[in-house]
């Protein structure tokens, strides 16, 4: 019977082409507006590391005091050198890493070639396991290499292609800003969006300079600090900015290092939070802080929410698009009601010949689903056009994340059909309750 009702629905589409066109356009434009904005919202609000987002935490320690803190008394969003080193040497977590962005130059072997500017991160050896960085060749360095301030480097697949033609370069040497580094690994393409691990120097989608794309390299943070590499990212300071040397810089209140720890259970989270509080209390007793301990420990989801990574315009545009879709559905209800009730005589005859109300429901809901399918196909075409033009409303680095993939295609068709069928319930109910006697008598 479904095939028969579907055939009747197709015939009905041709019977009233103007009315059908209005319904298809209402559904098509409504679902396209919703799917275009949803594609952007999905891209910016997704979980960048779903397997471990509940086990990764970024600690915050108040090194500025209540008079200079962020809004609401929040501690700074990164650590200064003193606090970062204290947390690193305490080893209070299963895995931990400090990181900050650096920008270097790859010195070519041939004299006629120019240096290549590259951007990457200074990290600890735990970085790769914590964030599940995939490798094409080799792997990360070890804890002993961190302690030894080894001249090791992990390079990206893209940089490996530029320098070594894509071959296995593990064990090869690359010169970065005048220092030779041994390649220990080549990372596969890995650039989570949003870039949750560095929301201090990026907004999650756009980096600074050479950090706007996938990182080109990772080197030991101990090595970077030993060579006095200044951050290529954000640097936030309070108080007098009179430092002129590396020693003064590392003893200042400037924050520029992002810490991350891996904690597998609620007990470990509570224990590490207690460690942070105890550390801040020690600094207060030592006279370095003259305020009560003020610490935070947020996981990935909480960190993204706190940093308001999802652009407000994506939420607003999604709400507006859903409102527009709702208006389209209300109009569709009226059009379907007019379409169905124009066939009241036909319905009366069917009921007089023994058709049940359930069969009337089935026929007209199937017909509505046919309208929804046609509207979904139109909406799919409009969505494809709209996704390619979202850069008009959103920043380019966000707009490029919106894609028309198979999941969005399926969702567009499902939403169009289901929404139209739901909108057809009241018109179908009116059609099913047509009184056969009245229609036969009037005929």
TrEMBL record:
Record membrane topology: Multi-pass membrane protein
**Residue span, MacB-like periplasmic core domain:** 20-224
Q: Which Pfam families match?
A: FtsX, MacB_PCD
This protein is called ABC transporter permease
Q: InterPro entries attached here?
A: ABC3_permease_C, MacB_PCD, Macrolide_Exporter_MacB
- Give every ABC3 transporter permease C-terminal domain span: 320-436
Tell me where the transmembrane regions lie: 21-41, 316-338, 371-394, 406-429
Alphabetical UniProt keywords: Cell membrane, Membrane, Transmembrane, Transmembrane helix
Q: To which species is this protein native?
A: Rhodanobacter hydrolyticus
Q: Where in the cell is it found?
A: Cell membrane
């Amino acid at each position: 019977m479904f095939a028969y009702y579907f055939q009747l629905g197709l015939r009905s589409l041709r019977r009233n082409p103007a009315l059908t066109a209005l319904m298809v356009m209402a559904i098509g434009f409504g679902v396209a507006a919703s799917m275009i904005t949803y594609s952007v919202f999905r891209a910016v609000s997704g979980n960048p590391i779903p397997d471990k987002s509940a086990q990764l935490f970024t600690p915050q320690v108040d090194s500025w005091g209540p008079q200079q803190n962020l809004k609401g008394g929040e501690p700074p969003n990164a650590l200064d050198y003193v606090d970062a080193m204290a947390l690193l040497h305490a080893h209070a977590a299963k895995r931990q890493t400090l990181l900050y962005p650096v920008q270097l130059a790859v010195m070519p072997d041939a004299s006629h070639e120019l240096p290549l500017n590259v951007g990457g991160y200074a990290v600890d050896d735990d970085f790769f396991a914590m964030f599940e960085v995939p490798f094409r060749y080799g792997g990360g360095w070890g804890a002993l290499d961190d302690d030894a301030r080894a001249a090791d480097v992990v390079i990206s697949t893209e940089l490996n292609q530029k320098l070594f033609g894509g071959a296995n370069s593990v064990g090869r040497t690359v010169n970065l800003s005048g220092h030779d580094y041994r390649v220990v690994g080549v990372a596969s393409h890995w650039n989570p969006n949003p870039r949750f691990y560095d929301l201090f120097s990026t907004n999650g989608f756009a980096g600074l300079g050479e950090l706007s794309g996938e990182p080109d390299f990772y080197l030991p943070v101990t090595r970077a600090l030993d060579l006095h590499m200044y951050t290529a990212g954000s640097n936030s300071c309070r108080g007098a900015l009179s430092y002129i040397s590396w020693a003064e810089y590392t003893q200042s209140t400037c924050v520029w290092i992002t810490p991350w720890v891996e904690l597998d259970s609620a007990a470990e989270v509570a224990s590490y939070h207690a460690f942070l509080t105890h550390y801040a209390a020690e600094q207060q007793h030592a006279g370095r802080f003259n305020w009560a301990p003020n610490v935070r420990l947020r996981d990935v989801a909480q960190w993204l929410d706190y940093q308001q990574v999802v652009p407000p315009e994506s939420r607003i545009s999604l709400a507006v698009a859903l409102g527009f879709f709702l208006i389209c559905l209300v109009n569709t209800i009226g059009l379907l009601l007019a379409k169905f009730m124009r066939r009241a005589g036909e319905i009366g005859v069917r009921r007089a010949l023994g058709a049940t109300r359930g069969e009337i429901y089935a026929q007209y809901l199937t017909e509505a689903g046919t309208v929804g399918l046609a509207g979904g196909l139109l909406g799919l075409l409009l969505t494809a056009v709209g996704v390619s033009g979202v850069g008009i409303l959103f920043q380019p680095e966000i707009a490029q994340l919106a894609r028309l993939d198979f999941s969005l295609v399926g969702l567009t068709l499902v939403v169009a059909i289901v929404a139209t069928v739901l909108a057809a319930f009241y018109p179908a109910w009116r059609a099913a309750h047509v009184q056969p006697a009245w229609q036969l008598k009037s005929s």
